[in-house]
Amino acid sequence: MKAAVLKGIRDLVIEEVLEPTSLAPGMVRVEVKAVGICGSDVHYYQEGAIGSFVLESPMILGHEVGGIVVATGEGVSIPVGAVVALEPGIPCQHCRHCKSGEYNLCPDVSFFATPPVDGAMTRYVDHPAEYTFLADGLTPDEASLAEPMSVGVYGVRKANIHLGDSVAIMGAGPVGLLTALAAESEGGRVQLFDVVKERVEFARRLGFEARLFGETGTEYDVVMDCSGNKNALEFAVGHVRRGGKLVLIGMGTKEGMQLSGLDLCLRGISVEGIFRYANTFPAAIELIRRHREKLAEFTKVHISLDELPDYLSTGRYKESLKTIVDI
Ligand SMILES: [Zn+2]
Ligand SMILES: [Zn+2]
To answer: What tens digit of pLDDT does each residue of 146-190 get?
Structure first.
């Protein structure tokens, strides 16, 4: 079977890899249909690393996965033929983080397309049933959105948004928009901000209230940064109300993400740092189901696996909000 194998910086090859053979108990064999291209795939392609995760041997890309179950191991109740979304991180299940339910913080997690673990841009993937979620009524394309949607769902849970809370979201890229959708579903009154005019207009077309960054905002109960950008973060801190909440989702540079502890202290602001997500897939799938029309914009650009190397090297992925690789 073919796979998108990253061999080094800007060296992505579509090549044959071995098909899986026997299926272990508790595992599901999924025929991968759709994998969304994520910023992290692009980072590994361009830089060969994200922070302390460094590509040291060839690795298959892709972690936003929708597919169809083709076989199940012993003890699995998910039916063959079901459309599923795969949660890409498999935690150790034994450490204190796993036991407390915050398994996104597990130091021994094995996560698709995070070195040295292979991702899912290939035909078949064997995955634990526990981290495989039924996406009844959704297409595999839509199911692949459950992963980025999970980031928004988790951020919104940590933000503890209440009905009527004002929420500013910095960054109107895919994660910002999905976070906005999750925040609205909790009853938040959401305003999105972005520096790019087209993104603001696009967010408005989707029905969100959106502003060009720099237009003055008021104070918000919750500000969620999905950009990791220095200016956005400064704005975010400056526009959380006293006693409000600042939620950090986007990851930028060390220098760009400095905060003043004294200011936070004096204004009684609490800060939530968000790393991935835990226990979010059923909620993410339900949100996708409810907002299918809006989300159609996220699944309309498709390329084939063979087109991927060229698509990344020419930077064409930048032209669309989200690109789905058809496997
Ligand atoms: Zn992603
Ligand atoms: Zn663990």
So the answer is: 999 999 999 999 999 999 999 999 999 999 999 999 999 999 999
Q: Which ligand approaches the C-alpha of residue 174 most closely?
A: 1
In angstroms, what is the span from residue 177 Cα to ligand 1's centroid?
14
Q: Please, what are the domains in the chain?
A: 2-144+299-326 (3.90.180.10), 150-273 (3.40.50.720)
**Quick one: which ligand is closest to 251's CA?**
1
Q: What is the pTM of this model?
A: 0.95
Assess contact for 327 and 4: CB atoms under 8 A.
no
- Taking the centre of ligand 2 as the mean of its atom positions, its distance from the CA of residue 100, in whole angstroms, is 10
90-116 mean pLDDT = 97
Q: Residue 89 C-alpha to ligand 2 middle, in angstroms?
A: 11
> Quick one: which ligand is closest to 111's CA?
1
| 25/47 Cα distance (integer angstroms) | 37
pLDDT in tens, 18-75: 999 999 999 999 999 999 999 999 999 999 998 889 999 999 999 999 999 999 999 9
| Alpha carbon of 118 to ligand 1 centroid (Å) | 14
Q: How far does residue 243's CA lie from ligand 1's centre (Å)?
A: 31
For residue 261, report the distance from its CA to the centre of ligand 1, in Å: 30
48 in Cβ contact with 42 (< 8 Å)? no
Cis peptide leading into residue 174 (ω within 30°)? no
Instruction: Detail the DSSP E strand segments found in 73-214.
Output: 83-86, 89-90, 110-111, 124-128, 132-134, 166-170, 189-194, 209-212
